[in-house]
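Quick check before the chapter quiz. The format below is the same one you will see on the exam, so make sure you can read both the input and the output lines.
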Amino acid sequence: MKLTVSTFLKRLLYFSIGLSVGIVFLNFIVNKKTNGKGMEFCYLPNCRVLKELRNTSLRPIQDTAVIAPVLLNGKVLFSESDPRREPCKQYVVTYQGERYVFERCDTYLTYYKP
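Here is the expected output.
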């Protein structure tokens, strides 16, 4: 079987069309599944803890404009945190040289800046 340039270009064209349709289909599925927010992969402990804190409602209603960037870009200090504390887990997060202490209970999240 002899492969010519024209056959190769036809195969490349078919492959490109199929790949394009697949990417559009996958993009549609991902947007539908995540409500247009995109995908977020949290495999590392720091990312998982911050995501867990972000998904818990604040109580009492506190200044979310200050807390939002801390929970997005902060770094959890696991050596100073106590995730097994009962009844509320305690996490220490640093952001731009400031320390924030969060207490996460089952249904709510409180924070204070020591």
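If your answer matched, good. The chain has two domains: 1-39, 45-112.
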